[in-house]
Amino acid sequence: MKVMIVDDEKLALSRLQRLLNENGVDDIAAFDNPIEALKEITKTKFDVVFLDISMPNITGLELADSIIQLEPKTFIVFQTAYSEFALEAFKNGGMGYLVKPIESNDIKSVLDKIRNFKISSDNQSKKILGKRGDKLYLIDINDIYYIKADLDEVIIKIKEADAYVRRKIGDLETLLSGHNFFRIHRSYIVNVDKIKSMKSVEQSKLQISFDGIAEIVTSSKDGAKDFREYIERRSL
């Protein structure tokens, strides 16, 4: 687990690092300057960020908002001497809220909560709410062949029929990150696990066919290049 801790009080920073070490966390980046911490977030991905709420220049709540925009899957844990910030902290995406002085069992509890949440999320099959006619359906992402942008909505291709979702294709790309989906074109995301074959066509684009359906989709030139690199990385 890769952890960042941010607190402008160096004694508090040192204590939190020690408590994390006691609970088996060794990969820690510690910052007493929130601006420098934010710069590091743009370069390095962290699993968990512990934030003091009251800091100069930028508050922990403001820093949390910036972190979530950059890395939506980052777990945020707030620590502060003031319990009245709890509600606002959880509204800002906090996974935990620790009131100083923090003890070792407080750290253990929040780390256990994060680990259990990660396991649950990894095992849970995601579903997307789609519409066909006047009926709504929960679509298992494993049943999706591809997603196509269509004006202000997207078409989700499953074996039985098409379903429509009133969302941008970029939103679904984010939702499906971490699963084996790839955006091969500004208008297409494909389920890599459903691909039957690929064929190079003009301008080094890829023509993709799927197991179980007759439809074929074609990548962009850049999408084909990126997709080939993605497949090669997964094959290593």
Strand order of the largest sheet: 2-1-3-4-5
The percent range for helix content is 25-40%
Mean of residue pLDDT? 87
Number of helices: 7
Shape: elongated
Number of strands: 15
Helix- and strand-based class? Answer: alpha/beta
Biggest sheet, open or closed, and with what strands and sense? 5 strands, parallel
Describe the secondary structure blueprint for this structure:
Elements: E1 3-6, H1 10-22, E2 28-31, H2 34-41, E3 48-52, H3 60-70, E4 75-80, H4 86-91, E5 94-99, H5 104-123, E6 127-132, E7 135-140, E8 146-150, E9 153-157, E10 162-165, H6 169-175, E11 181-185, E12 188-191, E13 195-200, E14 206-210, E15 216-218, H7 221-235
Parallel strand pairs: 1-2, 1-3, 3-4, 4-5
Antiparallel strand pairs: 6-7, 8-9, 8-12, 9-10, 11-12, 13-14, 14-15
Give a verbal description of the structure:
The strands form four sheets. Strands 2-1-3-4-5 form a five-stranded parallel β-sheet, with helices on both faces. Strand 13 and strand 14 form a beta hairpin. Helices cover 34% and strands 31% of the residues. The protein contains seven helices and 15 strands. By secondary structure, it is an alpha/beta fold.
